[in-house]
Q: What sequence folds into this?
């Protein structure tokens, strides 16, 4: 798994209770009720990269 990832409770709405997981050691911050997704960060070749600078 590539880090960081986003973890959010299945019952949350919008960005409420959103957690950023930076390493495997951070998984203790969430429960089995969370959905974990890759954080979408554009690469330098992506046309959206300028928004991240």
A:
């Amino acid at each position: 798994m590539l880090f960081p990832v986003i973890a959010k409770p299945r019952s949350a709405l919008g960005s409420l209770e959103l957690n950023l997981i930076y390493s495997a050691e951070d998984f203790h911050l969430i429960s089995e009720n969370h959905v974990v997704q890759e954080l979408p960060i554009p690469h330098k070749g992506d046309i959206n990269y300028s928004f991240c600078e």
User: Anything to note?
Assistant: The chain is about 0% helix and 25% strand.
